[in-house]
Specification:
Elements lengths: L27 E4 L4 H17 L3 E6 L5 H5 L6 H26 L5 E6 L3 H9 L4 E5 L7 H4 L1 H9 L3 E5 L13 E4 L4 H17 L3 E6 L7 E2 L2 E2 L5 H22 L5 E6 L3 H8 L5 E5 L13 H9 L4 E4 L3
Parallel strand pairs: 1-2, 1-4, 2-3, 4-5, 6-7, 6-11, 7-10, 11-12
Antiparallel strand pairs: 5-12, 8-9
Length: 316
């Protein structure tokens, strides 16, 4: 695998050559913390990196800046504790490396134990990574239990961030389509491009899901749904969805596309598709989101509850 950091010409996925996430040097980055969820993320990341001929970077953040305040007043000597955390971090990344090599013995793997805050570390890596991957334990269902690191990375990362979820304890879906939520926003357009690339890479079909009444308070393509029968609106939205996908379909002609238009509630329909999909792809912010809110309500819900891995795509 080349380690060139320069643009490599037209990308085979049809995406811009200057995109840092598509350079041959861009690796799959996975954050680990020694939990079952992290093991799931390592498996998903290793399999993806091996299939794409990319390296895997396993990283663990110690967050040493927070340690003095955490132990203040407990009579704990700080220096030995820091040394213990470093040793534990090294053990964790070594174990993750072994797990990744079990998935793919030929995989090129680098590891890192950093003093940085885990979320800040992964957000920084996301600027140049091919993908950033984190894990969520099956059955976890509320933001309070998802953890601040995962939420911060999903909200503020660059490129694509994957939350590896599974229907069972250890194995994500390995069949089924890639499903993408299409909402017409800039973030949604980036998600569509990423979804086509994922479907092509996996040699599977793509399902494009669009719920028109969630957009612009029911107005889309110049129509007010309150004044138009559902059948007419659905036909108009299906035509518009086809038009929006046409350019991407030209770049990925081998990807079979199914278009699904619903009158409302994209979250519910995407959640239903997660029962059979191998990956759900969504943008980082919906059409009606506030400028500072980089984590849209649909993405938020899917990260919490979906039954398959979820890719949240940020437009760089």
């Amino acid at each position: 695998m080349s380690d060139s950091n320069s643009p490599i010409g037209p990308d085979p996925d049809g995406l811009p050559a200057a995109d840092p996430h598509r350079l041959t040097s861009a690796v799959v980055v996975v954050g680990i913390d020694g939990t079952e969820a992290a093991d799931l993320a390592v498996r998903w990341a290793a399999e993806t990196a091996a299939r794409r001929g990319r390296g895997l970077h396993i990283t663990h953040g110690l967050d040493l800046r927070a340690m003095p305040s955490a132990v203040h007043g407990h009579g704990v000597a700080l220096s030995p504790l820091i040394d213990e955390f470093r040793v534990r971090g090294t053990d964790l990344v070594d174990a993750a490396r072994r797990l990744a090599h079990e998935m793919s013995p030929e995989l090129t793997i680098t590891t890192e134990v950093s003093e940085a805050n885990p979320a800040e570390l992964l957000v920084r890596h996301s600027r140049t990574a091919h993908l950033v991957v984190l894990g969520v334990r099956p059955g976890v269902g509320t933001l309070r239990h998802l953890g601040s690191t995962l939420l911060a990375v999903v909200a503020h990362g660059r490129g694509a961030v994957v939350v590896a979820r599974a229907a069972g304890p250890t194995r994500p879906h390995r069949a089924g389509p890639v499903v993408v939520g299409v909402d017409g926003s800039a973030a949604g357009e980036a998600a569509v491009g990423a979804a086509f690339a994922e479907a092509a890479d996996r040699a599977t079909d793509l399902v494009a899901v669009h719920a028109w009444s969630d957009l612009d308070f029911g107005e889309f393509a110049g129509y007010d749904f309150l004044d138009i029968p559902d059948e007419e609106m659905t036909a108009a939205e299906m035509a518009l969805l086809t038009q929006r996908l046409a350019g991407w379909h030209e770049k990925f002609p081998d990807v079979g596309v199914t278009r699904e238009v619903y009158p409302s509630d994209a979250r519910t329909h995407l959640m239903e598709w997660s029962k059979t999909a191998q990956l759900i792809v969504v943008g980082s912010r919906g059409r009606g989101g506030f400028r500072g809110l980089l984590f849209g309500s649909t993405s938020n819900s899917l990260v919490q509850h979906a039954l398959c891995p979820v890719m949240v795509v940020h437009p760089d």
